[in-house]
Design goal:
By secondary structure, this protein is an alpha+beta fold. 41% of the residues lie in helices and 17% in strands.
Length: 151
């Protein structure tokens, strides 16, 4: 199974990392050049820390939200290989046995199953029904209803 939106997920994470990098580099420079000399260094440091903190928060939130998303899933016998993205939007493979899969114990919005405490999400719109049946996940996969044309 190969997720349709894997390129979009990767691009979004790369954009977020690039934005964070620009924030970390640009915020101190922007604050230094745009504030009058009468403003104390402590105030400038506080403004800079706020900007950088917000950039870190949004990047971490995106990573938390997108990290369970399975880009590729391969089933060979009882061995499952899943590919997700790491923090730097690079493919990361994990292997486990079907028997290790458990119902997710989380309130996360994207959660199909968990293995050793790590949450995984399968996009139901791209998953093969037979594969999901072998994994025992028919009910645990989220599907978006197709929009109907009003024409």
């Amino acid at each position: 199974m190969l997720a349709v939106s894997h390129r979009l997920t990767c691009a979004l994470q790369l954009l977020s990392l690039a934005s964070l990098l620009l924030t970390v580099v640009g915020a101190p420079l922007l604050v230094q050049l745009s504030t009058p000399e009468a403003v104390s260094v402590a105030v400038k440091a506080t403004i800079t820390a706020s900007l950088v903190g917000f950039g870190c928060f949004t990047t971490a939130l995106l990573q938390w939200f997108a990290s369970p998303y399975i880009l590729r899933l391969v089933l060979e016998g009882d061995q499952v290989t899943v590919t997700t993205l790491n923090v730097f939007a690079q493919p990361f493979q994990t292997r486990f046995q079907i028997q290790e899969m458990r119902e997710p114990q989380t309130m996360r919005p994207l959660a199909s199953f968990q293995v050793d405490g790590r949450i995984y999400f399968i996009d139901g719109n791209t998953a093969d029904e037979r594969l999901l049946g072998k994994l025992g996940l028919k009910k645990a996969v989220h599907k978006q209803p197709l929009e109907e044309d009003d024409d």
